[in-house]
Specification:
About 25% of the residues lie in helices and about 35% in strands. The chain has 18 helices and 40 strands. The structure holds adenosine-5'-diphosphate (ADP) (2 copies) and magnesium ion. The site of magnesium ion has 2 residues, from loops.
Length: about 650
């Protein structure tokens, strides 16, 4: 076994590889870009080497710099993770030429599978079923249109060098073919520097079922299938293993086809053979076709680990170090069912746009495996994939594993960036998905209901108000409490464009009553969040926003009370508290002469300090509060002397 390996990647996959290496006694070297100097993978590794600027081409894609780092640190092997250099055969050649081991397949195996057209031809020869289509060299538009006609519509145009769903167009009718061809070629040229395409039959009600394979360069085994049919724009969203409805007969047929594919190219290490499956009439052993092979560890590998008990990264290291396959086919079996959900920083209402932000708060439940490359305080930067974590659950049955996923998502808390958490939660409650009746179009068909935000409940609004005044006990448990009777404070919150005006009064330590419209709610702060109307609601106020966690997480904005104050008029004689808060400091006393904009009082609210300033020049008549006082919104704080009329 190696003494030391270098991990040529970042984020969750680098962290995940480091954990297994450490458990095997193998030391690790991380590499990092300028943007990742403080990243988790750097902290977890035994050693870390800076390799360049934040753009991937200046760091994580610089094979020469990475190989030099391995040689200088005495690492014997390089693990590429996924993405970046993982499927680059020239990098594999360079690693080998430097006398190092590439933890993955040979350059020739990667080349054989690198282009979809050549891979399909090879698989056809090896007796693996391939989607009917045209994979030839003639790229003339008229020829391709003729091929489409012969295949029969609908057809799919695919970039031969494609990946990540790019350069792919579904064409339903001959009239649309030329436009689709042009845009697919344009996208392929930009993304992959290769505009060649293939045309294939579009399978209706398609399911994406892939088989995990593992080879030692000569022999290969399969570790069963994963169903990745829950996709949005050809990108996987939730994956599971085994596939719902899979029969022993079809599993054997798919497994044998995948192993044939791996053996045909002398595959070494972990790989995935992706198949498209016709799900229109149940799963049939003659209804699956080879799509492509991913010659690397896959993002969704943990679901296979969960049902087989195999640590795939451990296997990768053992086989790369020269051991044979750790288990034979007959020693492998499936236990239970597993799901993985990909948690991303993305703006779902804005059309799933990637989002950025500093994660001011991050919590994963310990009821799920959470593979993450970030911690609270870290930034989701625009430089890399905005994945925050993968949540993986396992159970004795599909229903149990899915329930666990639903609960794990509801118990996950993220603040500081918008996420797809609510969307993932909605998916776990989708009736068709629950019953295992899914295909790759499920999300698109139900996108409206899956992304609809339910109305906020009175309980949620009451808890949000309690957060705003700091009732979570993080500051003073008696904040806002008055022995002379409840002081009512106004709190205004924005949910998108909807304003909610609430009133709250502290009634004791960590207790308050809140009026929401005509309803009144008693809120108690406790260990699990806030208890209201017989249920727990978890929430936090962070930097001017209230984050409601749970099954349908939401972010509410606090209406900026300072802007309301300004609307009261610049000539006002009284300075009022614009929001409920704690008086932290008073800078003036009766008789002081102040200029316009002079600092008068500092008020702490929403865990931020707000400085209240004089709206005009004048003389202070009276200071009505002292530092340490808890004040309601609208409380007079400082009185200016009346302005003398000129002349
Ligand atoms: P899967 O999800 O099936 O493992 P993906 O196609 O989604 O495969 O790719 C896995 C990861 O690799 C993703 O994080 C993606 O961002 C990254 N990736 C895919 N293609 C490339 C590429 N050409 N260059 C860099 N990263 C890539
Ligand atoms: P990529 O390299 O971008 O991952 P794939 O060939 O693996 O490209 O296809 C990506 C996705 O597109 C699949 O997971 C599936 O949802 C859909 N797809 C691909 N081929 C077909 C087909 N022939 N019929 C229907 N859907 C397909
Ligand atoms: Mg694919």
């Amino acid at each position: 076994m190696f003494d030391k390996i270098l991990i040529a990647n970042r984020g969750e996959i680098a962290c995940r590889i480091i954990r297994t290496a450490r458990s095997m006694g193998v030391r690790t070297v991380a590499v990092y870009s300028d943007a990742d100097a403080q990243a988790l993978h750097v902290e977890l590794a035994d050693q870390a080497i800076h390799i360049g600027g934040p753009a991937p081409r200046d760091s994580y894609l610089r094979g020469d710099v990475i190989i030099r780092a391995a040689l200088e640190t005495g690492a014997q092997a390089i693990h590429p993770g996924y993405g970046f250099l993982s499927e680059n055969p020239d990098f594999v050649d360079a690693v080998t030429a430097a006398g190092l081991v590439f933890i993955g397949p040979s350059a020739s195996a990667i080349r054989a599978m690198g282009l979809k057209d050549a891979a399909k031809a090879l698989m056809h020869k090896a007796g693996v079923p391939v989607v009917p289509g045209y994979h030839g060299a003639d790229q003339g538009p008229a020829h391709l249109a003729g091929a489409a006609e012969a295949i029969g519509y609908p057809v799919l145009i695919k970039a031969v060098a494609g990946g990540g769903g790019k350069g792919m167009r579904l064409v339903n009718a001959p009239a649309d073919f030329m436009d689709a061809l042009e845009s697919a070629k344009g996208e392929a040229a930009t993304a992959f520097g290769n505009d060649a395409v293939l045309v294939e039959k579009y399978i209706t009600k398609p399911r994406h079922i892939e088989v995990q394979v593992f080879g030692d360069g000569v022999d290969a085994v399969h570790l069963f299938e994963r169903d990745c049919s829950l996709q949005r724009r050809h990108q996987k969203v939730i994956e599971e293993a085994p596939a719902p409805g899979m029969t022993a007969e079809m599993r054997a047929a798919m497994g044998q086809a995948a192993v044939r594919a791996a053996r045909a190219i002398g595959y070494a290490g972990a790989g995935t053979v992706e198949f498209i499956v016709d799900g229109s009439d149940g799963l049939r052993p003659d209804g699956f076709w080879f799509m492509e092979m991913n010659t690397r560890l896959q993002v969704e590998h943990p679901v296979t680990e969960a049902i087989t008990g195999v640590d795939l990264v451990e296997w990768q290291l053992r086989v790369a170090a020269g051991e044979g396959l750790p288990l034979r086919q007959q020693d492998l079996s499936i236990t239970g069912h597993a799901f993985e959900a990909r948690l991303y920083a993305e703006d779902v209402p804005a059309g799933f746009l990637p989002a950025t932000g500093r994660l001011s708060h991050l919590h994963f439940p310990d009821t799920a495996r959470s593979d993450s490359g970030v911690r609270a305080g870290d930034e989701i930067s625009p430089w890399y994939d905005p994945m925050i974590a993968k949540l993986v659950t396992h159970g004795a049955s599909r229903a149990i594993a899915l329930k666990r996923l639903e609960r794990a998502l509801a118990a996950t808390e993220v603040a500081g960036a918008v996420t797809n958490l609510a969307f993932l939660g909605a998916l776990t409650r989708d009736a068709a998905f629950r019953s295992g009746d899914m295909d790759t179009g499920l999300i698109e068909r139900n996108i409206t209901s899956l992304t609809r935000e339910p109305d906020l409940t009175g309980q949620e609004l009451a808890v949000a108000a309690a957060c705003v005044i700091g009732l979570d006990g993080l500051s003073d448990p008696l904040a806002g409490f008055s022995l002379t009777g409840p002081i009512w404070q106004d709190v205004s919150l924005m949910d998108g464009t909807d304003a909610h005006d609430l009133r709250i009064a502290v009634t004791g330590p960590l207790r308050a009553i809140v009026t929401v419209g005509g309803d009144e709610f008693a809120v108690n702060a406790g260990a699990q969040g806030f208890h209201v109307a017989g249920a727990w609601v978890r929430a936090r106020a962070i930097a001017g926003h209230v984050h409601l966690f749970g099954a349908t997480p939401r972010i509410l904005g606090l209406v900026d009370p300072l802007s309301r104050q300004e609307a009261l008029g610049a000539g006002a004689d009284v300075v009022l508290a614009p929001m409920p808060g704690l008086v932290k400091a008073v800078f003036v006393a009766a008789g002081y002469t102040v200029d316009k904009a002079a600092r008068l009082v500092v008020l702490e609210a929403m865990k931020m300090e707000h400085t209240l300033v004089a709206a005009r020049a004048g003389v202070i008549a009276e200071v009505l509060v002292q530092p340490g006082a808890q004040v309601a919104a609208g409380t007079p704080l400082v009185q200016l002397q009346e302005q003398q009329e000129e002349g």
